[in-house]
Amino acid sequence: MTRIRRGYIARRRRTKIRLFASSFRGSRSRLIRTITQQKIKALVSAHRDRNRQKRDFRRLWIARLNAVIRGNAVSYRYSIFIHDLYKRQLLLNRKILAQIAISNKNCLYMISNKTIKIK
């Protein structure tokens, strides 16, 4: 039986996989089986952390808002502030409020004073 020379398709597939893992260290960038395992793990982590990133940023915005609001008035808290915003129908999301809190605290104090007056 004559020898059959294999094609280039498997080699092309492996080089594509190697390009994905070119920044990995050690055998994780050299051995095909380890590269495929690391690729799966990396993609799973990326998918999971995209959702976790949204969660973490929301927590950061809430912490910033709470810190600025508590610095303004001693008895005022984040939860009461958000509740008063909804009562006044001032629909500002937490990201915008946190940016206002960082860049212009006086503006946030004016917003919180407007919400306090409704009580």
UniProtKB/TrEMBL annotation:
GO terms for molecular function: rRNA binding; structural constituent of ribosome. InterPro entries: Ribosomal_bL20 (IPR005813), RIBOSOMAL_L20_CS (IPR049946), Ribosomal_protein_bL20_C (IPR035566). SUPFAM superfamilies: Ribosomal protein L20. The gene is rpl20. It comes from the Eukaryota. This is Large ribosomal subunit protein bL20c. HAMAP family: Ribosomal_bL20. One of its GO terms (biological process) is ribosomal large subunit assembly. Belongs to the bacterial ribosomal protein bL20 family. Binds directly to 23S ribosomal RNA and is necessary for the in vitro assembly process of the 50S ribosomal subunit. It is not involved in the protein synthesizing functions of that subunit. Keywords: Chloroplast, Plastid, Ribonucleoprotein, Ribosomal protein, RNA-binding, rRNA-binding. GO terms for cellular component: chloroplast; ribonucleoprotein complex; ribosome. It is found in: Plastid, Chloroplast. PROSITE patterns: RIBOSOMAL_L20. It comes from Olax imbricata.
